[in-house]
Each structure stands twice: as C-alpha cells, then as structure tokens.
Amino acid sequence: MSGDALILAQDRFIAVWGQMSGAWGISRTMAEVHALLYITGQALCTDDIMERLQISRGNASMSIRSLLDWGIVERAHKRGDRKEYFRAEQDVWALFRAIVRERIAREVDPLLASLHEIRDMTPTDRARRGEAIPESQKHAADEHNKRLDDMLQFFQVLEKLGNRFVSPAGRGLQLAATLLTKMDVGGARP
Amino acid sequence: MSGDALILAQDRFIAVWGQMSGAWGISRTMAEVHALLYITGQALCTDDIMERLQISRGNASMSIRSLLDWGIVERAHKRGDRKEYFRAEQDVWALFRAIVRERIAREVDPLLASLHEIRDMTPTDRARRGEAIPESQKHAADEHNKRLDDMLQFFQVLEKLGNRFVSPAGRGLQLAATLLTKMDVGGARP
DNA sequence: CTCATCTTTCAGAATATTCTGAAAGTTAGT
DNA sequence: ACTAACTTTCAGAATATTCTGAAAGATGAG
After folding, report:
1. What are the tens digits of pLDDT across the range B29-47?
2. Is B73 helix (H, G, I), strand (E, B) or coil?
C-alpha cells in the first residue's frame, strides 16, 4: 500500500508544479520534468522520464536541454552505462537563485537596454534649449521622460537586488529574508 | 518634428512592454494596453485604445477588464461624456506592489495549499510507528517528505516577504530595497 | 418607456505554442 | 573503421491561446 501513496504524492506534485509553468514563462513539460527529478531526488535517464510522464523522446530531450540551460538540472553518469542521467538541484534556495539569475539575464537586462534606448529617443529639457517648440509639447515630453526614468530606476533597483541575492554573498540576503519574515515589524505599533 | 518623436518613443515602449508579457504570464494585448495608458499618462476610452493599438472592441474590453481586476488601471469619467475612460497607476512602486499582491493571491497561495495537501498524502515518521513497512520504503518516504517541507518553507518565506512588501508598512521595505542596492556590502572585503 | 449610446460576451477564426516521431547526428567500444 | 547505443533535430500534427466582430446586455437621458 505505502508504495502507491508515494507514487501518488509524486504524481500530484508533478501536476501542481506543471500548472505553475504558465505563470513562470516556461513550458508545462519542462516544469513537469523538473518536478519529477526534484521530487524523486534520483538521477533518471531520458527513457525513465519518457515513460513516467508519457511524453515523446523529442519532447523529453528538449525539456531536459532547457533545464540544463537554466542550470537547475545537471548531468550524471553511472559507471558501466552509456546513458546520460539527470539530477535536479536539491537545495531549494540554490534552485531559486538560479532562476533569479536567468530571469535577470533573459528579461531584466534586455528590458533595461530597451528602456535606455527609448529614453534617448526624446530630447531632455536641457538638450532642447533654444529650439522653438510649443510649451505644451515640451511639457508632454518632460512628463514622458519622467515616466521612463521612474520605470528605469525601478528596474535598476530590481536588477541590483537580484544580483545581490544571486551572488556568493547572497546567502546573507537569504538569511535576511528569512529573518525578516520572522521578525514582527508590524505596521500598527507605538 | 518633435511630436513624431514622442509618438515613436511611445510606440517603442508599448512594443517592449508587450514583449515582456509572456514572461509575466499575461497576454500581449493586456500588457500593450497597460503600456499605452502608463506611457501617455492620460485617461483614454475604449475607442482611443482600439485605434491606437489596432485591436478589436472585444479584445480591448477584455484586456481593460483584466487590468482593472489586477488593480493597476482605474476607471475615470469626464463630465458631459457617457464614455468610460481608463487611467494607469502612475506610481511605479505602487504598480509593482499591486502585481505582487495579485501574484501571491493567484499563484503562491494556491500552491501552498496544494503542497500542504500533498504533504498529507504520505505518513510522517512519527505517525508510522508499529506498521510493518520495509526500511527502504520508510527511507524513501522520509526523503520525499523532507523535499516537500523544504519547498513549503521556501514559499512560506516568499509569501510573508511579499505580503510585507505589499502591506501599508511595505513602503519601508521599498526604502530598504533601494538602500540595499546603494550600500556597498560587497563580498570581498576585510 | 423608448431610444441612443456605450459595454460585455462568446462562438468561431486566426495565431502561436508545444509535441511527436522518424531521420540525422554523435560517441564509445571493439 | 564499423557498429550499436544513445542523443538531438525538426517538419508537420496536435493543442492551446488569443482575437474578432456581431449580437446581446446595460445604462442614462428625455
């Protein structure tokens, strides 16, 4: 009986993790493969994964490759066996550090670059002196620039915070975060 | 000439924001509508949005509705005009507080509930005493439970941290985050 | 109450994403 | 160098998501 319970719990975890995939911007299968590797804690080969998740070889191969790219799954080998095995990072904080690292590189950094580009598309107030432009247009441009700057500043803070979390010194931040949630810094107090 | 530059910069911002949509788990149009409202800073009506983004009325209506649900766009009215106008939250930090609030409610809370359910599917070591179960199975179940507990703990910290950021007292955290990035707490120092 | 105006809904069309499976590619052993 | 074992690729199929537009549903003025 007990063996079944474990398998059932694993399947449920895989399903739940798979549902999160959409919100995280990765494909469902990729999340499921990761869930399987994480929750079993074992090094599995492509065929193991195909069979357990009922997916094609191509799909398994691509999902594994993506997980390797994200750095949250690593290759493993068994002696006397030519197959490649894969094992998921077992430290949850290390897992999320890797995710944060990748998302900064894939999303925040390019976004910052684009925002800078856009910032350069309209003249600053200073750079405009002398030109005969209606006040109303100047005003609109200034407001526009302020909004861009606000956004830029926010993502710069986010990027620095993320990099700090990810860095070797980041384990300190991990501790800080944990402590913060335990501390009672509640709003309504003398 | 200058008027064009502004429009062009706005279009570029809308496009860039739209590309981020996938990673954030919202639809492209929804992101574009938000971008338009944010970057123009104006209250626009459905027809304005339809025309500027070249989308259908249905699409516009649904996207606006979603943005209202997320709490990052609000209704506005002009006197002597029956149409509804919409304006985006202009404070970037308030915007992201709203996003964090929604994502906790939509993703983290349900995930925590599911993880707890899954945790209850396998017996704890304590609850197992007396039963005749092979050692190896007991061991597997214990490891499984530990992995679930690790994950559970992580998301509990994340949830508390998020709630604190979102709370009225959260502006303190905002300041803390900004300061953190300005402080030099670098790793390699005496 | 009726009309005119504006908003929402939703079935089907358009589009985008993900998956399959067979073929091509790679590698280790002999 | 050949072969068997294993992995990756990718065109097309399957699936899922998003969008359209017309019809139904509101709402307020007169």
Report:
1. 999 999 999 999 999 999 9
2. strand
Contact by Cβ (8 Å): B34, B20: no
Please indicate if any CB of chain A lies within 8 Å of the CB of B70: no
Contact B169 A161 (CB under 8 A): no
Task: Find the helix or strand (DSSP H, E) in which A20 lies.
Answer: helix A2-24
User: Which parts of chain A are beta strand (E)?
Assistant: 44-45, 73-77, 84-88
B139 near A159, Cβ under 8 Å? no
Q: Quick check: helix, strand or coil at residue A184? A: coil
**Local structure of B23: helix, strand or coil:** helix
Kindly tell me if the per-residue pLDDT of A51 is higher than 90.
yes
- Rounded-to-integer distance, Cα A64 and Cα A51, Å: 14
Residue reference for tokens 């809370």: B109
Contact A92, B154 (CB under 8 A): yes
A147 pLDDT higher than 70? yes
Estimate to the nearest angstrom the gap between the alpha carbon of B4 and the chain centroid. Answer: 33
Cα–chain center distance at A24: 7
- Which residues in chain B are closer than 8 Å to A8, comparing Cβ atoms? 121
Taking the C-alpha atoms of residue B60 and residue B53, their distance in angstroms, rounded to an integer, is 9
SS3 (DSSP) at B16: helix
Residue numbers in B 34-63, CB below 7 Å of strand D:
54-59, 62-63
Paired tokens of B172 = 């303190």
Residues 20-59 of B with CB under 7 A from strand C: 22, 45-47, 57-58
**pLDDT of B184 over the 90 cut:** no
Residue A188 has what pLDDT?
Answer: 39
